[in-house]
Amino acid sequence: MGENLRLHLGQHAIFFLVFFLVLAPLSFLILGSFSTARLPGDFSLDAMGLVNYLKVYSDPGTYELFTNTVIYVGGSASFGIIMAVSLAWLVERTNMPGKTLVYAGVPMTLAVPGMLQAMAWVLLLSPRIGFINQLLKDLFGPDAPVIDVYSLGGMVFIEGLRLVPTAFLMLVPLMRSMDPALEEAAAVSGARPVATLRKVTLRLLAPALVAVMIYQAMTALEVFEIPGILGLPAGIYVFSTKIYAIVRTATFMPVYGQANALAMVYLFIAVATTFLYTRMISRAERYAIITGKGYRPRLLDLGKWKIPALACALLFLFFAIVLPFLVFLYASFLPYLQAPSWNVLKVLTLKNYRLLAEYGEVGSALKNTVLMVATTATSTVVLSFLVSLVVIRSKFWGRKLLDQLAFMPHAIPGIVIGIAFFWLFLQLDFLPLYGTIWAISIGFTISFLAYGTRSMNAALLQIHKELEEAAYVSGAPPWRTMWRIFVPLMMPTLVGVWIWVVLHAVRIAGMPLMLYEGPDNQVLAILIWNMWDEGYIPAVAAIGTLLMIVLLLLTLAVRFLGFRRQTMQIGGT
Amino acid sequence: MIRIEQLHVRYRTERGEVHAVRGIDLNVRQGQFFTLLGPSGCGKTTTLRSVAGLERPQEGEIIVGDDLVFSQQRKISIPPYKRDIGMVFQSYAIWPHMNVFENVAFPLREMKKRVSQTDIRSRVRKALSLVQLEGLEDRPAPFLSGGQQQRLALARALVKEPRVLLLDEPLSNLDAKLREETRFELRELVKRLAITTLYVTHDQLEALTMSDVVAVMDQGRVVQEGTPLEIYRAPRDRFVANFIGLSNFLEGRVQKTGQLGEVETPSGTLKCVLADGITAGEAVVVVIRPEDVNLNAGPASQNENILEGKIEAVVFMGDTLECQVAVGTKLIRIKLHPSSPVARGEIVRLRLPAESCHALRA
Asked: What residues of B are in contact with residue A6 (Cβ under 8 Å)?
């Protein structure tokens, strides 16, 4: 009976931990939106009202915000998905040469953090300092056209690039497992290849495509770094950046609550999209084109278009990964920022790298980052594993609810989680969490819990129930069964999720920025953000180059270890 | 050794509550090979899993060895890891991350009383030699054939020397030839160890060839319990007769009772053995096994029924010739020696020995 009691206590502990971690910050987010107190720390139930909502929603700027967000999200999702469909179709259904390179290269672009991607393009396309714009001026004189990356167009283009790898990884299996008989039936009915593609292939893929598109829109909606780097300097706001701007400029003004009020709509949109996505997924699954038999579909002969097709695919890889890396590499050797020319070769220097080694803030940020990332990854893995065990393998009364609680944060934009925890930690002043890296760790753990539990659920479902039962009848109590059966059998998933979390926690700046207090909890992403803000561009380039190399190696490791399925489900920002 | 009293198991599925086991009483004696036989969904596996503690019954009592392991009334439910059992699963459930040795050593390493390394080694070796797997200790479990995995699962179940062995369709994943060999090996082994065995299967041949006692189950209840011969020769009702072996069924009404009764059927009046308590005038069904029907001509003896019919179909089955004979409106299946000279359309006289005709309540 002792074992049984312990099992019950354990299950309840997990349930209430997740319950608290997910719902407590959300409650404070909601309460905060009604707070009229000057600072979150002065929050009291007496000072409540609708002032924040009235302020926010009577401001015409808010409607501009809506329009911007719609253009940005819709534009980047469409752009990203068109590229992803084309790439997936080229590698799966045509005889384009160099497929292996594209197969391997596209997922690699996940290794470039959004923030660095945006910064690289600023170096290329900023109206004042952009290398390309300067080149245009040199070629066509001062009246030359200027491509301005600080614009909605720039945001759409770069976020679009960033959405491609995830969509590509989602689409490839779809294209691969489509029954070729469906297309062959069209062909023998007299349809030409292009008509078949348009009338059969794309129609059949439509529900899945819409699902992928909604997923991409969710990602774009949530991303902070790209609108942050490209939109903030030009005063072009979307939801995520507006909330950030309110909080960051709110030091002396009683407007914290306005950020919460704005976050409520943002949250509502995100939850609605998630709901829509879940619905679409189930519909896409009902569409029975995927028979899971693993066909080798007939490949379309591209003929003379082979080389142009490959060139387009390679151009994507060039834009998404090669160019940003080269730009950073180049800038990291400059004494001060200047466009490439023969003269530059003479002044190239290692000064920036030396500076990184000497500059104390870099060392402490690096230490913080390693600590934060390791704790986040470990706690996400442990918590997800325990939650999934209860959800999939127990008869615990609240297992369905627990599963939903763990999935809920998936719909919550990182910046909203950040602001929610900001309020929570200020209220829980007996816990000295505010302003520490542990605050960031907890926030990230909640963010990644949805991904973690989805992966673990899937992996646990793969483990035959009798493997567990055989341990019980062999005399192993639940705790021992977990150690000796589940943990070793799930090792690939545990390691896969751990690396995935590391890859993501290290690069995201939005959520940590909301919880950032000073050098004590400055992580690498924030350091880069701040240095960029203050104009230390060659130093940023040096850190960025090193970070990209590390991330690239980690991504390679993930692929090498064969955890491709994990990266397929939820992509990065 | 295993006693089950008034066991009820219900569980909830997406399509509502299933009452899987509806009041089962069983008594398996020391050293007995006891088989639960029935079609899928009859509750046999649920019963076995309740004995193992993997399923939690709603009512009843279960005793394993001398231990009361489950009692609804006394609020006792011993978890599986504290029961004195060994179990072989249908999928074998060989842990793929361990080698052969570690799989077998697992139950020893989980024992409450610590077993020394040398003891573990010698006991694992002994268990492996019982199932003829010696020498494969270091082989990773996934590199075993189906038959080897089955034997490994058996070794793991036996290594603790439990008082009760539970087997959940352990042969169903083997191919036909291997299954036949394993049937005898398995029975021979558990008999040699004199271990009490509860066996679950849907295969009548396994049940008949291996068991001391068979309990036929249907819809959560035990329909008939007895030795294989009793079950086969004297099925208690139509379900058992239909499920075990091939049977012909002739509906009719009892005309005369006695040592041998008489039943009026559309195909003629038949002398037959009446089940207990059947009275004159009752509606019955007469069960005749195809192999009990003879075809030779000649006069009928005292205790024989003669039916005349026309051969409608002849199917060559290898070791037998199966014929369908139309008697009145009824088709009767019979089994003949493959060299029997019969042809379609032939008019034949069927001889049915009265003691092979069993009249059961309809």
From this structure: none
Q: Look up residue B116 and give its DSSP letter.
A: P
pLDDT of residue A521: 87
Please report which residue ranges of chain B form alpha helices under DSSP H: 44-52, 100-109, 117-130, 146-158, 176-193, 204-210, 228-233, 238-243
The tens digit of pLDDT for each residue in A23-50 reads 999 898 888 888 877 677 677 777 778 8
Contact: B89, A466; criterion CB under 8 Å: yes
Q: Do A469 and B95 touch (CB under 8 A)?
A: no
Q: Are B37 and B44 in contact (CB under 8 A)?
A: yes
- Domain residues for A457? 1-27+354-573
CA angle B96, B98, B104 (to 5 degrees): 110
A94 and A158 housed in the same domain:
yes
Measured in angstroms, the CA of B114 and the nearest CA of chain A are apart by 13
CB atoms within 10 A of CB A57: 14
Q: CATH code at A223?
A: 1.10.3720.10
Q: Which of A381, A380, A386 is nearest to A399 (CA)?
A: A386
Q: Which of A500, A506, A508 is nearest to A561 (CA)?
A: A500
Q: Is B58 on the interface with A (CB under 8 A)?
A: no
Which regions of chain A are under pLDDT 70? 1-3, 38, 41, 250-254, 283-298, 561-573
Interface probe with A: pick from B89, B103, B104, most Cβ of A within 10 Å: B89
pLDDT digits over B269-320, tens only? 889 888 888 888 889 999 999 988 888 766 767 778 888 889 999 998 888 8
How do the domains of chain B map onto residue ranges?
A: 2-238, 248-361
Please write the tens of the pLDDT for every residue from A133-182: 888 888 888 777 888 999 999 999 999 999 999 889 888 877 777 777 77
Interchain CB distance below 8 Å, A466 and B110: no
Do A563 and A521 have their domain in common? yes
Q: Which residues of A touch B53 (CB under 8 A)?
A: 472-473
User: In angstroms, what separates the C-alpha of A468 from chain B's closest C-alpha?
Assistant: 8
A223 assigned to some structural domain: yes
Domain B248-361 CATH superfamily:
Nucleic acid-binding proteins (2.40.50.140)
* B146 or A252, higher pLDDT: B146
Residues of chain B with pLDDT > 70: what percent? 99
Q: Is B78 on the interface with A (CB under 8 A)?
A: no
Domain count, chain A: 2
Please report the number of interchain residue pairs, chain A to chain B, with beta-carbon separation below 8 angstroms. 69
Distance of CA B349 to the CA centre of its chain: 35
Query: Which token pair is A421?
Result: 């925890």
- A302 and A429 share one domain: no
Boundary residue ending a domain (A315, A339, A363): A339
Residues of A in contact with B142 (CB under 8 A): none
In a domain, A416, yes or no: yes
